[in-house]
Protein backbone atom coordinates (compact mmCIF):
# COMPACT_ATOMS: atom_id res chain seq x y z
CA UNK A 1 0.00 0.00 0.00
CA UNK A 2 1.41 3.44 -0.96
CA UNK A 3 1.85 6.12 1.64
CA UNK A 4 -0.90 8.27 0.12
CA UNK A 5 -3.32 5.36 0.42
CA UNK A 6 -3.34 5.29 4.23
CA UNK A 7 -6.78 4.27 5.40
CA UNK A 8 -7.61 2.72 2.05
CA UNK A 9 -9.80 -0.33 1.81
CA UNK A 10 -7.19 -2.79 0.63
CA UNK A 11 -7.69 -6.34 -0.57
CA UNK A 12 -4.15 -7.64 -0.46
CA UNK A 13 -4.42 -11.08 1.12
CA UNK A 14 -4.17 -9.52 4.57
CA UNK A 15 -6.62 -7.49 6.62
CA UNK A 16 -9.02 -5.37 4.57
CA UNK A 17 -9.03 -2.12 6.54
CA UNK A 18 -11.34 0.89 6.45
CA UNK A 19 -10.26 4.16 7.99
CA UNK A 20 -12.30 5.06 11.03
CA UNK A 21 -13.51 1.50 11.61
CA UNK A 22 -15.30 1.27 14.93
CA UNK A 23 -16.42 -2.33 14.74
CA UNK A 24 -15.06 -5.59 13.49
CA UNK A 25 -16.96 -8.66 12.38
CA UNK A 26 -15.07 -11.93 12.58
CA UNK A 27 -15.96 -15.18 10.97
CA UNK A 28 -14.22 -18.54 11.24
CA UNK A 29 -13.43 -20.05 7.86
CA UNK A 30 -11.80 -23.23 6.63
CA UNK A 31 -10.07 -23.13 3.25
CA UNK A 32 -10.60 -26.23 1.21
CA UNK A 33 -7.80 -28.72 0.81
CA UNK A 34 -7.49 -31.76 -1.36
CA UNK A 35 -5.48 -34.88 -0.54
CA UNK A 36 -1.90 -33.67 -0.92
CA UNK A 37 -1.45 -30.20 -2.37
CA UNK A 38 -3.94 -27.57 -1.38
CA UNK A 39 -6.85 -27.26 -3.77
CA UNK A 40 -7.64 -23.85 -5.19
CA UNK A 41 -11.15 -22.55 -4.78
CA UNK A 42 -12.39 -20.97 -8.01
CA UNK A 43 -15.37 -18.64 -7.72
CA UNK A 44 -17.56 -18.35 -10.75
CA UNK A 45 -16.70 -15.65 -13.26
CA UNK A 46 -20.07 -14.01 -12.60
CA UNK A 47 -19.21 -13.78 -8.90
CA UNK A 48 -15.94 -12.00 -9.68
CA UNK A 49 -17.77 -9.59 -11.99
CA UNK A 50 -20.36 -8.87 -9.32
CA UNK A 51 -17.58 -8.37 -6.73
CA UNK A 52 -15.63 -6.01 -8.94
CA UNK A 53 -18.63 -3.93 -10.01
CA UNK A 54 -20.03 -3.64 -6.50
CA UNK A 55 -16.74 -2.66 -4.91
CA UNK A 56 -16.12 -0.07 -7.58
CA UNK A 57 -19.48 1.67 -7.23
CA UNK A 58 -20.22 1.22 -3.51
CA UNK A 59 -17.80 3.92 -2.31
CA UNK A 60 -19.07 6.30 -4.98
CA UNK A 61 -22.70 5.71 -3.95
CA UNK A 62 -21.89 6.97 -0.45
CA UNK A 63 -20.60 10.22 -1.87
CA UNK A 64 -17.70 9.89 0.50
CA UNK A 65 -15.00 8.15 -1.46
CA UNK A 66 -12.40 8.96 -4.08
CA UNK A 67 -11.27 6.15 -6.37
CA UNK A 68 -7.48 5.93 -6.43
CA UNK A 69 -6.67 2.73 -8.24
CA UNK A 70 -8.16 -0.68 -8.82
CA UNK A 71 -5.58 -3.32 -9.71
CA UNK A 72 -7.60 -6.45 -10.46
CA UNK A 73 -6.22 -9.86 -11.28
CA UNK A 74 -9.28 -11.63 -12.64
CA UNK A 75 -7.17 -14.21 -14.42
CA UNK A 76 -6.34 -16.12 -11.25
CA UNK A 77 -9.37 -15.69 -8.98
CA UNK A 78 -7.95 -18.31 -6.67
CA UNK A 79 -8.08 -18.99 -2.97
CA UNK A 80 -5.35 -20.66 -0.94
CA UNK A 81 -5.69 -20.75 2.84
CA UNK A 82 -8.91 -18.82 2.10
CA UNK A 83 -6.90 -15.94 0.62
CA UNK A 84 -8.47 -14.60 -2.54
CA UNK A 85 -6.08 -13.49 -5.29
CA UNK A 86 -7.95 -10.31 -6.08
CA UNK A 87 -6.54 -6.90 -5.23
CA UNK A 88 -8.51 -3.70 -4.80
CA UNK A 89 -7.20 -0.41 -3.47
CA UNK A 90 -9.23 2.76 -3.12
CA UNK A 91 -9.58 5.54 -0.57
CA UNK A 92 -12.72 5.45 1.56
CA UNK A 93 -13.23 8.63 3.61
CA UNK A 94 -15.43 8.12 6.68
CA UNK A 95 -15.43 11.79 7.68
CA UNK A 96 -19.21 11.94 7.08
CA UNK A 97 -19.86 9.79 10.18
CA UNK A 98 -20.21 6.61 8.14
CA UNK A 99 -19.64 3.77 10.59
CA UNK A 100 -17.77 0.66 9.54
CA UNK A 101 -17.79 -2.79 11.08
CA UNK A 102 -15.49 -5.75 10.93
CA UNK A 103 -16.70 -9.33 10.80
CA UNK A 104 -15.18 -12.57 11.98
CA UNK A 105 -16.40 -15.82 10.45
CA UNK A 106 -15.83 -19.55 10.51
CA UNK A 107 -15.68 -21.77 7.46
CA UNK A 108 -16.45 -25.48 7.67
CA UNK A 109 -15.54 -28.38 5.40
CA UNK A 110 -14.97 -32.06 6.06
CA UNK A 111 -11.28 -31.99 5.10
CA UNK A 112 -9.68 -28.58 5.28
CA UNK A 113 -7.20 -26.23 6.73
CA UNK A 114 -8.97 -23.51 8.60
CA UNK A 115 -8.78 -20.48 10.78
CA UNK A 116 -10.59 -17.37 11.88
CA UNK A 117 -11.07 -14.79 9.18
CA UNK A 118 -11.86 -11.07 9.28
CA UNK A 119 -13.52 -8.59 6.94
CA UNK A 120 -14.58 -4.96 7.11
CA UNK A 121 -18.30 -4.22 6.93
CA UNK A 122 -19.86 -0.84 6.09
CA UNK A 123 -23.19 -0.54 7.89
CA UNK A 124 -24.20 2.28 5.56
CA UNK A 125 -24.36 0.22 2.38
CA UNK A 126 -23.88 -3.39 3.46
CA UNK A 127 -20.51 -3.69 1.71
CA UNK A 128 -17.62 -5.81 2.96
CA UNK A 129 -13.94 -6.09 2.35
CA UNK A 130 -12.55 -9.41 1.21
CA UNK A 131 -12.32 -11.89 4.12
CA UNK A 132 -8.74 -12.55 5.13
CA UNK A 133 -7.00 -14.82 7.63
CA UNK A 134 -6.78 -13.28 11.10
CA UNK A 135 -5.51 -16.38 12.90
CA UNK A 136 -4.86 -20.01 12.09
CA UNK A 137 -6.83 -22.42 14.27
CA UNK A 138 -7.71 -26.09 14.24
CA UNK A 139 -11.37 -26.45 13.34
CA UNK A 140 -12.83 -23.38 15.11
CA UNK A 141 -16.57 -24.10 15.18
CA UNK A 142 -18.09 -21.19 17.10
CA UNK A 143 -17.05 -17.73 18.28
CA UNK A 144 -17.89 -15.28 21.07
CA UNK A 145 -16.50 -11.91 22.14
CA UNK A 146 -15.70 -10.47 25.56
CA UNK A 147 -18.23 -7.80 26.65
CA UNK A 148 -15.60 -5.16 27.51
CA UNK A 149 -12.14 -6.35 26.47
CA UNK A 150 -10.89 -6.62 22.85
CA UNK A 151 -10.82 -10.42 23.09
CA UNK A 152 -12.33 -13.13 20.90
CA UNK A 153 -12.95 -16.70 22.11
CA UNK A 154 -13.30 -19.80 19.95
CA UNK A 155 -13.91 -23.50 20.44
CA UNK A 156 -11.80 -25.76 18.28
CA UNK A 157 -9.84 -29.00 18.07
CA UNK A 158 -11.28 -32.35 17.00
CA UNK A 159 -12.62 -35.61 18.39
CA UNK A 160 -9.25 -37.36 17.98
CA UNK A 161 -6.91 -34.93 19.71
CA UNK A 162 -9.51 -33.32 21.97
CA UNK A 163 -11.22 -29.96 22.17
CA UNK A 164 -9.65 -26.60 23.00
CA UNK A 165 -10.86 -23.12 23.91
CA UNK A 166 -8.78 -20.32 22.43
CA UNK A 167 -8.50 -16.69 23.57
CA UNK A 168 -7.32 -14.05 21.07
CA UNK A 169 -6.48 -10.39 21.53
CA UNK A 170 -8.18 -8.30 18.84
CA UNK A 171 -6.28 -5.44 17.21
CA UNK A 172 -8.97 -2.71 17.27
CA UNK A 173 -7.57 -1.08 14.14
CA UNK A 174 -7.00 -4.03 11.84
CA UNK A 175 -9.05 -6.83 13.36
CA UNK A 176 -5.93 -8.96 13.53
CA UNK A 177 -5.84 -11.69 16.17
CA UNK A 178 -3.01 -12.65 18.51
CA UNK A 179 -3.34 -15.83 20.53
CA UNK A 180 -3.34 -15.11 24.27
CA UNK A 181 -3.66 -18.71 25.41
CA UNK A 182 -5.61 -21.91 24.95
CA UNK A 183 -6.92 -24.51 27.38
CA UNK A 184 -8.12 -28.09 27.03
CA UNK A 185 -11.87 -28.50 26.57
CA UNK A 186 -12.48 -32.22 27.03
CA UNK A 187 -12.32 -35.10 24.58
CA UNK A 188 -14.41 -33.57 21.78
CA UNK A 189 -14.58 -30.38 19.76
CA UNK A 190 -17.03 -27.84 21.19
CA UNK A 191 -20.17 -26.87 19.28
CA UNK A 192 -21.03 -23.60 21.04
CA UNK A 193 -19.30 -20.98 23.17
CA UNK A 194 -20.66 -18.06 25.17
CA UNK A 195 -19.34 -15.45 27.59
CA UNK A 196 -21.12 -14.18 30.70
CA UNK A 197 -22.15 -10.48 30.67
CA UNK A 198 -19.67 -9.69 33.47
CA UNK A 199 -16.84 -11.08 31.35
CA UNK A 200 -15.71 -13.50 34.05
CA UNK A 201 -16.69 -16.88 32.59
CA UNK A 202 -16.62 -18.78 29.28
CA UNK A 203 -19.07 -21.65 28.75
CA UNK A 204 -18.90 -24.39 26.12
CA UNK A 205 -21.39 -26.99 24.87
CA UNK A 206 -20.40 -30.26 23.22
CA UNK A 207 -22.89 -31.85 20.83
CA UNK A 208 -20.43 -34.70 20.38
CA UNK A 209 -19.62 -36.02 23.83
CA UNK A 210 -22.74 -34.71 25.53
CA UNK A 211 -21.22 -32.35 28.10
CA UNK A 212 -20.87 -28.72 29.18
CA UNK A 213 -17.77 -27.01 30.61
CA UNK A 214 -16.97 -23.66 32.22
CA UNK A 215 -13.74 -21.64 32.40
CA UNK A 216 -12.74 -18.58 34.41
CA UNK A 217 -11.56 -15.50 32.52
CA UNK A 218 -8.59 -13.65 33.96
CA UNK A 219 -8.20 -9.86 34.06
CA UNK A 220 -6.26 -9.80 30.78
CA UNK A 221 -8.87 -11.92 28.97
CA UNK A 222 -6.86 -15.12 29.15
CA UNK A 223 -8.51 -18.37 30.20
CA UNK A 224 -8.03 -20.43 33.32
CA UNK A 225 -8.34 -24.20 33.39
CA UNK A 226 -11.76 -25.87 33.38
CA UNK A 227 -13.71 -24.97 36.53
CA UNK A 228 -16.64 -27.35 36.10
CA UNK A 229 -17.99 -30.06 33.84
CA UNK A 230 -21.57 -31.31 33.51
CA UNK A 231 -22.47 -34.56 31.75
CA UNK A 232 -25.84 -34.89 30.05
CA UNK A 233 -27.42 -38.35 29.91
CA UNK A 234 -30.93 -38.14 28.43
CA UNK A 235 -31.73 -39.29 24.89
CA UNK A 236 -34.81 -39.40 22.65
CA UNK A 237 -36.60 -41.54 20.07
CA UNK A 238 -35.55 -39.73 16.88
CA UNK A 239 -32.50 -41.29 15.10
CA UNK A 240 -30.61 -38.05 15.72
CA UNK A 241 -31.30 -38.36 19.47
CA UNK A 242 -29.46 -41.62 20.18
CA UNK A 243 -26.88 -39.90 22.41
CA UNK A 244 -26.94 -36.73 24.54
CA UNK A 245 -26.48 -33.63 22.35
CA UNK A 246 -26.26 -30.28 24.18
CA UNK A 247 -26.17 -27.94 21.20
CA UNK A 248 -25.82 -24.55 22.85
CA UNK A 249 -25.38 -22.85 26.19
CA UNK A 250 -26.90 -19.38 26.48
CA UNK A 251 -26.42 -17.02 29.42
CA UNK A 252 -29.32 -14.97 30.77
CA UNK A 253 -28.94 -11.19 30.25
CA UNK A 254 -28.34 -10.66 33.98
CA UNK A 255 -25.65 -13.34 33.99
CA UNK A 256 -27.22 -15.36 36.80
CA UNK A 257 -28.22 -18.46 34.85
CA UNK A 258 -26.93 -20.53 31.95
CA UNK A 259 -29.41 -22.41 29.77
CA UNK A 260 -28.35 -25.46 27.78
CA UNK A 261 -30.49 -26.69 24.87
CA UNK A 262 -30.11 -30.46 24.49
CA UNK A 263 -31.28 -31.66 21.08
CA UNK A 264 -31.45 -35.31 22.13
CA UNK A 265 -33.33 -34.74 25.38
CA UNK A 266 -35.91 -32.25 24.02
CA UNK A 267 -35.17 -30.23 27.13
CA UNK A 268 -33.67 -26.94 28.20
CA UNK A 269 -31.54 -27.25 31.34
CA UNK A 270 -30.74 -24.34 33.64
CA UNK A 271 -27.63 -23.86 35.75
CA UNK A 272 -26.61 -21.25 38.27
CA UNK A 273 -23.23 -19.64 37.55
CA UNK A 274 -21.16 -19.32 40.71
CA UNK A 275 -18.57 -16.61 41.49
CA UNK A 276 -15.95 -19.33 40.92
CA UNK A 277 -17.16 -19.74 37.30
CA UNK A 278 -18.79 -23.09 38.03
CA UNK A 279 -22.09 -24.48 36.73
CA UNK A 280 -24.23 -25.51 39.71
CA UNK A 281 -27.77 -26.54 40.69
CA UNK A 282 -28.65 -28.04 37.32
CA UNK A 283 -32.31 -28.76 36.64
CA UNK A 284 -34.79 -29.08 33.78
CA UNK A 285 -36.11 -25.60 33.02
CA UNK A 286 -38.43 -26.72 30.20
CA UNK A 287 -39.52 -29.97 28.57
CA UNK A 288 -40.46 -29.54 24.93
CA UNK A 289 -42.44 -31.67 22.48
CA UNK A 290 -41.00 -35.14 21.99
CA UNK A 291 -38.70 -35.33 18.98
CA UNK A 292 -38.55 -31.57 18.40
CA UNK A 293 -34.77 -31.41 18.87
CA UNK A 294 -34.23 -28.05 20.57
CA UNK A 295 -31.07 -26.47 19.17
CA UNK A 296 -30.41 -22.76 19.89
CA UNK A 297 -31.80 -20.10 22.24
CA UNK A 298 -32.28 -16.32 22.13
CA UNK A 299 -33.52 -13.78 24.69
CA UNK A 300 -35.62 -10.71 24.00
CA UNK A 301 -33.74 -7.44 24.69
CA UNK A 302 -35.89 -6.75 27.76
CA UNK A 303 -35.14 -10.28 29.08
CA UNK A 304 -38.84 -11.08 29.52
CA UNK A 305 -38.93 -13.83 26.90
CA UNK A 306 -36.77 -16.67 25.65
CA UNK A 307 -37.10 -18.20 22.17
CA UNK A 308 -35.95 -21.73 21.32
CA UNK A 309 -35.53 -23.01 17.78
CA UNK A 310 -36.28 -26.71 17.40
CA UNK A 311 -34.12 -28.27 14.70
CA UNK A 312 -36.03 -31.50 14.04
CA UNK A 313 -39.53 -29.96 14.12
CA UNK A 314 -38.71 -26.67 12.34
CA UNK A 315 -40.49 -24.66 15.02
CA UNK A 316 -39.83 -21.84 17.46
CA UNK A 317 -41.10 -22.12 21.04
CA UNK A 318 -41.78 -18.95 23.04
CA UNK A 319 -41.18 -18.90 26.82
CA UNK A 320 -41.84 -16.32 29.49
CA UNK A 321 -38.65 -15.91 31.53
CA UNK A 322 -38.63 -15.36 35.30
CA UNK A 323 -35.33 -13.65 36.06
CA UNK A 324 -35.73 -14.17 39.81
CA UNK A 325 -35.88 -17.96 39.64
CA UNK A 326 -34.55 -18.75 36.15
CA UNK A 327 -37.88 -20.40 35.39
CA UNK A 328 -39.41 -20.78 31.92
CA UNK A 329 -43.14 -20.91 31.13
CA UNK A 330 -44.12 -22.07 27.65
CA UNK A 331 -46.40 -19.66 25.76
CA UNK A 332 -46.66 -21.02 22.22
CA UNK A 333 -44.88 -22.87 19.42
CA UNK A 334 -44.96 -21.68 15.80
CA UNK A 335 -43.71 -23.26 12.58
CA UNK A 336 -40.79 -21.87 10.61
CA UNK A 337 -41.90 -23.65 7.40
CA UNK A 338 -45.16 -23.33 5.40
CA UNK A 339 -48.27 -25.21 6.58
CA UNK A 340 -48.23 -27.50 3.54
CA UNK A 341 -44.50 -28.23 3.80
CA UNK A 342 -43.40 -31.82 3.24
CA UNK A 343 -39.77 -32.80 3.47
CA UNK A 344 -36.94 -32.80 5.94
CA UNK A 345 -37.35 -30.30 8.77
CA UNK A 346 -33.93 -28.97 9.74
CA UNK A 347 -33.86 -25.55 11.39
CA UNK A 348 -30.68 -23.91 12.60
CA UNK A 349 -30.42 -20.40 14.04
CA UNK A 350 -32.72 -17.97 15.88
CA UNK A 351 -32.12 -14.31 16.73
CA UNK A 352 -34.17 -11.41 18.07
CA UNK A 353 -33.72 -7.93 16.59
CA UNK A 354 -32.16 -5.39 18.93
CA UNK A 355 -35.45 -3.44 18.89
CA UNK A 356 -37.25 -6.50 20.24
CA UNK A 357 -39.87 -6.09 17.52
CA UNK A 358 -38.78 -8.91 15.19
CA UNK A 359 -37.45 -12.47 15.29
CA UNK A 360 -35.63 -14.41 12.58
CA UNK A 361 -35.18 -18.18 12.20
CA UNK A 362 -33.33 -20.17 9.55
CA UNK A 363 -34.23 -23.46 7.83
CA UNK A 364 -32.05 -25.87 5.88
CA UNK A 365 -32.54 -29.05 3.80
CA UNK A 366 -35.82 -28.91 1.83
CA UNK A 367 -36.67 -25.34 2.86
CA UNK A 368 -33.56 -23.19 2.59
CA UNK A 369 -34.94 -19.98 4.05
CA UNK A 370 -35.09 -17.39 6.79
CA UNK A 371 -38.51 -16.89 8.37
CA UNK A 372 -39.27 -13.46 9.85
CA UNK A 373 -41.81 -12.85 12.61
CA UNK A 374 -43.24 -9.81 14.35
CA UNK A 375 -42.98 -9.98 18.15
CA UNK A 376 -45.88 -8.81 20.32
CA UNK A 377 -44.19 -6.71 23.03
CA UNK A 378 -46.76 -7.57 25.69
CA UNK A 379 -47.05 -11.34 25.27
CA UNK A 380 -43.92 -12.28 23.31
CA UNK A 381 -46.08 -14.13 20.78
CA UNK A 382 -44.99 -14.34 17.16
CA UNK A 383 -46.82 -13.38 13.97
CA UNK A 384 -45.41 -14.57 10.64
CA UNK A 385 -44.13 -11.79 8.37
CA UNK A 386 -42.08 -13.20 5.52
CA UNK A 387 -40.08 -16.14 4.29
CA UNK A 388 -36.89 -15.36 2.34
CA UNK A 389 -35.62 -18.21 0.19
CA UNK A 390 -32.81 -18.68 -2.30
CA UNK A 391 -30.35 -19.69 0.42
CA UNK A 392 -28.04 -22.70 0.69
CA UNK A 393 -27.68 -24.31 4.12
CA UNK A 394 -28.09 -21.11 6.21
CA UNK A 395 -26.57 -22.61 9.33
CA UNK A 396 -25.93 -19.30 11.05
CA UNK A 397 -26.65 -15.60 10.69
CA UNK A 398 -26.04 -12.42 12.66
CA UNK A 399 -27.71 -9.02 12.88
CA UNK A 400 -25.43 -5.99 12.60
CA UNK A 401 -24.92 -3.85 15.71
CA UNK A 402 -27.04 -1.01 14.29
CA UNK A 403 -29.88 -3.44 13.51
CA UNK A 404 -29.86 -2.50 9.83
CA UNK A 405 -28.50 -5.70 8.30
CA UNK A 406 -28.75 -9.47 8.57
CA UNK A 407 -25.70 -11.39 7.35
CA UNK A 408 -26.51 -15.00 6.50
CA UNK A 409 -23.86 -17.71 6.17
CA UNK A 410 -24.73 -19.83 3.14
CA UNK A 411 -22.54 -22.81 3.94
CA UNK A 412 -23.22 -24.76 0.73
CA UNK A 413 -23.08 -21.76 -1.62
CA UNK A 414 -19.69 -20.50 -0.42
CA UNK A 415 -20.97 -17.02 0.33
CA UNK A 416 -22.47 -14.71 2.91
CA UNK A 417 -25.58 -12.78 1.91
CA UNK A 418 -26.19 -9.28 3.29
CA UNK A 419 -29.90 -8.42 3.71
CA UNK A 420 -31.14 -4.96 4.68
CA UNK A 421 -33.74 -5.07 7.47
CA UNK A 422 -36.70 -2.72 7.15
CA UNK A 423 -36.79 -0.91 10.49
CA UNK A 424 -40.56 -0.47 10.31
CA UNK A 425 -41.78 -3.83 9.02
CA UNK A 426 -38.86 -6.12 9.92
CA UNK A 427 -38.89 -7.64 6.45
CA UNK A 428 -35.70 -8.48 4.58
CA UNK A 429 -34.97 -6.84 1.25
CA UNK A 430 -33.29 -8.67 -1.60
CA UNK A 431 -29.60 -9.25 -0.83
CA UNK A 432 -27.62 -6.07 -1.25
CA UNK A 433 -24.49 -8.13 -1.54
CA UNK A 434 -23.28 -11.72 -1.67
CA UNK A 435 -19.59 -12.01 -0.98
CA UNK A 436 -17.47 -15.11 -1.36
CA UNK A 437 -16.75 -17.02 1.84
CA UNK A 438 -16.13 -20.77 1.42
CA UNK A 439 -18.42 -22.89 3.62
CA UNK A 440 -19.05 -20.21 6.24
CA UNK A 441 -20.90 -21.44 9.35
CA UNK A 442 -20.58 -18.67 11.95
CA UNK A 443 -20.68 -14.85 11.78
CA UNK A 444 -19.79 -12.54 14.69
CA UNK A 445 -19.61 -8.74 14.89
CA UNK A 446 -17.15 -6.87 17.10
CA UNK A 447 -17.77 -4.76 19.03
CA UNK A 448 -21.22 -6.28 19.45
CA UNK A 449 -22.83 -2.93 20.44
TrEMBL record:
Signal peptide: none annotated. GO terms for biological process: glucose metabolic process. The keyword Calcium does not apply. GO terms for molecular function: 6-phosphogluconolactonase activity. InterPro entries: Cycloisomerase_2, Haem_d1_sf, Lactonase_7-beta_prop, WD40/YVTN_repeat-like_dom_sf. The keyword Protein transport does not apply. One of its GO terms (cellular component) is cytosol. Keywords: Carbohydrate metabolism, Glucose metabolism. It holds the Pfam family Lactonase. PANTHER family: 6-PHOSPHOGLUCONOLACTONASE, 6-PHOSPHOGLUCONOLACTONASE-RELATED. Belongs to the cycloisomerase 2 family. This is 6-phosphogluconolactonase.
